[in-house]
Predict the structure of 2-polyprenyl-6-methoxyphenol hydroxylase-like FAD-dependent oxidoreductase.
Amino acid sequence: MTGRRIRSQVVIVGGGPVGMGLAIDLGQCGIRCAVIERRVEPQPVPKGQNLTQRTMEHMRAWGVEQRVRAGRPLPAGEGARGLTAYGTLLGEYSYEWLRRSAVRRFYATDNERLPQYATERALRDRVAELPSVSVHYGWRAEDVSQSEEGVRVQARDASGEVLEVEAEHGVGCDGSRSRLREGAGIGQDRTDHEQMMVLLVFRSTRLDELVGRHPGTSFFNVLHPALEGYWQFLGRVDAEKTWFFHAPVDVEAADASIDFRPLLWRAVGAEFDVELQHVGFWDMRFALAERYRNGRLFVAGDAAHSHPPYGGYGINTGFEDAANLGWKLAATLQGWGGPHLLDSYDAERRPVFASTRDDFIARSIQVDRDFLASHDPDIDREAFEAAWAARAEAAAVEVGAYEPHYEGSPVIPAGGGGPPSALGSHETRARAGHHLAAQPEGTDVDLFDQLAAGGFVLVRAGTSGDELVAAAERASVPVRMVDVGEDVRNAYGADLVLVRPDQYVAWAGDACEDAEALVATAVGRTVR
């Protein structure tokens, strides 16, 4: 057995989309990081396909937006639109689902839809351009440990060669069975197994024709009373007539040779050609790490939280983990982040996922279950149609209500109502702890590239704010001033808006009474 040892500032275990996003975030700050990834090529299974406007902001910040969009396998016009149907996909009742266009004006770019493996390829290409990032494909992490001096990850490749990486910090982006989480001694809060689900990947020529009544729609959710709220959902993967399909099945299905085509046909409401390419199974359950940090070790993405793939939250939540942790690690390693800054990663991100789980995914399952138990068009068509119309209206509201924020965070100087949550409301007004709309409504301004260039940004209307910049400079905190006009000031509702490197508002107001204290809290030198 041979081996070698390398030294880095951060070691990332897991080079999937979240790990690569974090590596880019750190690499663009000049932080040396090593990525350990067991797969030489991305896993060719269509998942993580719905990328929100906020995720595409990350792609823009990481210099990869156009590459991601270029990897889209669906033609223009087959957008990221969804549809919920009752009974069968071809049935009488349906409405638009996940209408993210409703919140487009609060973000700097459009949402996108493409398989995770296509996103990963674009991220891998970008990582290869960053000299401070080294990626080790084909290596499986076997042991993770930490001490007061640093962390150590031991990995092995297919030949048996051993690689040992020493670093100041380690991050587990290695999925729900995370080796780093295990090595860090971080437990999980897990729900019991609820339901076995099957994933089918297949090709079909006729299915395209059958769903032609819904042009521009690429994913579909079919509710059926017999399924008690569990979803059947299917969607297009590419222009080559490839589709995916998830549905609940009995546990015994994983151990038997079952023809799953009738399951598909019942969901759609017609028989059609099916050429199966992949059959997989997954457990429908929630898992949440008991904490996101233990000493020098952190978890992100599925290593920190996992859930049923309902609503497209998973990959998007993971990218936000990366953006939140990335700037805080960089600030700490560069010497301007305070001793409390890294703790704020757990304080901000863990409650957001708990809220996503409870207020959106679990609630959605229960709402569907209650609806199906209470309404049946064969029994009372009028009551059913009224309730169905109410569901359609609520679906549009839900997209706007999903607004992860950090009110109550220990590093948000203004405090706010708190605690951090995924449940909020979209506004152009600048609010402490909330994402800032970089293209403020009613203006022709786009501030995003300035907000995403690293460090803090003070958006200023007028002549005040010099004392805040001076306080940051005295504390060696990188900050840039961006002057804006009265139209932006009116949209944001404040003369001054201090924006963090992850485009979240640290503070907003017309005058700053104690600039030193504000800066100290925002970078974790003190906590509120």
Summary: The CA atoms of residues 461 and 486 lie 7 Å apart. The mean pLDDT is 94. The two ends are 52 Å apart (CA to CA).
